[in-house]
Structure formats: structure tokens, C-alpha cells
């Protein structure tokens, strides 16, 4: 069934204040790898850790664990997920201000909402469950779920699975903008995430806080068919 109006949301740095969760999760993961004798390098600093947020898992561990074998990188995936799920329960982070309320409003008005993230499937599911926003989404798409190699490929699959008439891609990294553009979508970039200066320049619109989103949607939120 075709979706008339659809919004695809990245998760990290778009809906979730990820740095509060990820930096602690990475730190615990590297400490555990060191304890297991699987890693003896210097601890990446906070800038290095936040720079990889939004990348595919292959890119993340290729950057942070260069030269390590695949079994170590897969273990790092599992450790990171476990630590982040624990940290979520401890309340170390939250959604950006207004996210929960705006998702509820969009859902109530019949807009089809999706997550399109490069994260692990269980990670995205845990966040949506923890913050009680899962019911607002038609589906949760992740690179971990579909083993996609890029955000562009993930968005292409989503649009193939759920034909839409008019869709918007919302994210905070260049890969989100590129994925939207490559798939013919209107792109809204969030300049409150992890993008570097100039990274979002190709977006159709750049917003500086989540509450600005509805003012820039290319469709009306009333009288939809």
C-alpha cells in the first residue's frame, strides 16, 4: 500500500542525543577489549568517537580498530551493544527536546514515519522501546537488520519495500543527505548532531533544533488523503 506522506529519520544525532551514550559505550568497550588482551592501543578521544557516529559499523571499527581481525570487530559490536543497552537503562541520555511530542503529532496526522539508521537492529529497537516511541513508526530500518553497506542502499531498500508518493529524509550527516538525494527525496539536515562545517550544505533545508522540522516539510500536515 502506497504511503502518501512519509518521513525517514536517522537516529544518532537526529532523534537521540547519542554522544552521551556512545562515548561511554565506546569507553567501556575498549576497556573490556584491553582486559581480554585483544587491544592495546591508546583510547580514542571524544572527538574521534563522535566523528564515527552515523557511519556504518564496518566504517566505525575500520576507523577505531584499524588492522584488527574481523572476530575482534564483531566482538566489539556485541560489547558495544551490551554496554549501550545497559547505559540506556541507567538514563545516561535522552531524545532531543521535542522529539517525542513531534513524532506523536506527525503520527496522529497520518504521516508514515520510519527510522533509517546505520546502527545495529537491536540498538535501534532498544532505543525506541526505552523512550516509548516505537509505536509511532511504520518500520525500523537499520544496516544491522538488512546488512546494507551504505545509507543510500538502506533508503533504496526501504522505498522499494514501502512505495511512497512523497518522502523526506531527515538526518545529521552527509551520508543522510546523500542517501536522500540519491533516492530523489527532499532532504532536511539537522545541524545539532555531529556534522562538521559544510558537511550539510547540499541539503534542501538545514534546521538548528528539532522543533523547526514541521515548518520546512514540503507538504501540508492538514487535509491529507
Choose one word for the global shape.
globular
Query: Count of DSSP E strands?
Result: 6
Write the element-wise H/E pattern from the N-terminal end onward.
Answer: EHHHHHEHEHHEHEE
Average pLDDT number: 94
Report the helical percentage: 40-55%
Largest sheet: 6 strands, parallel
Given the helix and strand composition, which structural class is it? alpha/beta
Distance between the termini: 13 Å
Strand content: 5-15%
Q: What are the segments in which pLDDT stays under 50 over at least 5 consecutive residues? A: none
Structure explained in plain terms:
It is a single chain. Helix content is 42%, strand content 15%. The chain has 225 residues and is α/β, with parallel strands linked by helices. It has a six-stranded parallel beta sheet with strand order 3-2-1-4-5-6, sandwiched between helices. Helix 1 crosses helix 4, helix 4 (70-89) packs parallel to helix 6 (121-130) and helix 8 (151-161) packs across helix 9. The protein is globular and about 60 Å long.
Write a concise synopsis of the structure shown:
With 225 residues, the protein is α/β, with parallel strands linked by helices.
Keywords:
42% helix, six-stranded parallel beta sheet, 6 strands, 225 residues
How is the secondary structure organized here?
Blueprint: E1 3-9, H1 19-35, H2 46-51, H3 57-64, H4 70-89, H5 99-108, E2 112-117, H6 121-130, E3 139-142, H7 143-146, H8 151-161, E4 164-171, H9 174-182, E5 186-190, E6 205-207
Parallel strand pairs: 1-2, 1-4, 2-3, 4-5, 5-6
Helix pairs in contact: 1-4, 4-6, 8-9
